[in-house]
């Protein structure tokens, strides 16, 4: 298996090289040269396989050049050591809970998988690796936890000032050691832009061994496919004569891209819904066929506040920029903050289930789209505890736990690439 650029060039690299590089030489994203096909017998027997056996089968074709079967099994067992349950909410609606990891975010599996890959790769690397990542909330928490105290790896996390929850900021800034959180006076898109500038700064990269842990990095993206295999394993007996639809709260489109990859490997999911908040760049693209990035706006579902989603490039490449082909497999919806809070309020009153704001966006987008012959799963990407200031808008008697940020480790900087460059070189 080789990986190539979503913007064609001469690169054709191994999994290890793609992970260490982060971005391609021409500043694009890596994508599998071909998508492996799993046999129908795998899906017919999936309910009899362990979660780790399923993960190994799905990931092994992508990594076999650089990770032995024994190494891959160890990484999977160490990275995926918590449940990802599917629960029934009501009628044809189910939820996939991905917040049972150490930072209560769906990004835990990807961050833990990548950190363990790098710990294997670092042994043959004579330079320390610097992880540079931009976050709108949960990525920073998961990366900080997943890479904490990993030998030979330094982590720099850029997050927008006053645009992540106190709970998320605490998780990013409380560790110290090899983890450095950097508060940027700007938006997530500003953070992401500076990360891309650093990766395209060839003079800098001669001095700093740089890679990323956003979903732009394959080692973060590929393990997220596993969620949808495990969801299918749990829901299979409930499907009967219905088709499966999955709604994913979406910002940078990494989780949606991972699900689409799983579908192209043969996973029997009929279609996906990319559920957005007011940051509706991808929604507009599917309506008009014209991709126009926008400045991000602050919403109650802050982890999805992305105006220029990087992984759009992977979806566009996969479908040959054919809008009709893409629309056959993925749709999009945009949900307002007012609708989000109302959905949280209605759901707890009707079912007793407490949604986080991102899950509320996913649920509402799903139920607006679900057809009679379909069964739907929406994804809960983070634990409600991380967004208590929003929870109390829907559930006023929710018990708040104060989050203090005193004494935590962080740097602050302006929206200025030169400042970031100086930090990386220091």
UniProtKB/TrEMBL annotation:
<dbReference type="GO" id="GO:0004795">
    <property type="term" value="F:threonine synthase activity"/>
</dbReference>
<dbReference type="InterPro" id="IPR029144">
    <property type="entry name" value="Thr_synth_N"/>
</dbReference>
<comment type="similarity">
    <text>Belongs to the threonine synthase family.</text>
</comment>
<feature type="modified residue" description="N6-(pyridoxal phosphate)lysine">
    <location>
        <position position="107"/>
    </location>
</feature>
<keyword id="KW-0663">Pyridoxal phosphate</keyword>
<dbReference type="InterPro" id="IPR001926">
    <property type="entry name" value="TrpB-like_PALP"/>
</dbReference>
<dbReference type="InterPro" id="IPR037158">
    <property type="entry name" value="Thr_synth_N_sf"/>
</dbReference>
<dbReference type="Pfam" id="PF14821">
    <property type="entry name" value="Thr_synth_N"/>
</dbReference>
<dbReference type="InterPro" id="IPR004450">
    <property type="entry name" value="Thr_synthase-like"/>
</dbReference>
<feature type="domain" description="Tryptophan synthase beta chain-like PALP">
    <location>
        <begin position="93"/>
        <end position="368"/>
    </location>
</feature>
<dbReference type="InterPro" id="IPR051166">
    <property type="entry name" value="Threonine_Synthase"/>
</dbReference>
<protein>
    <recommendedName>
        <fullName>Threonine synthase</fullName>
        <ecNumber>4.2.3.1</ecNumber>
    </recommendedName>
</protein>
<keyword id="KW-0456">Lyase</keyword>
<dbReference type="GO" id="GO:0009088">
    <property type="term" value="P:threonine biosynthetic process"/>
</dbReference>
<feature type="domain" description="Threonine synthase N-terminal">
    <location>
        <begin position="2"/>
        <end position="79"/>
    </location>
</feature>
<dbReference type="Pfam" id="PF00291">
    <property type="entry name" value="PALP"/>
</dbReference>
<dbReference type="InterPro" id="IPR036052">
    <property type="entry name" value="TrpB-like_PALP_sf"/>
</dbReference>
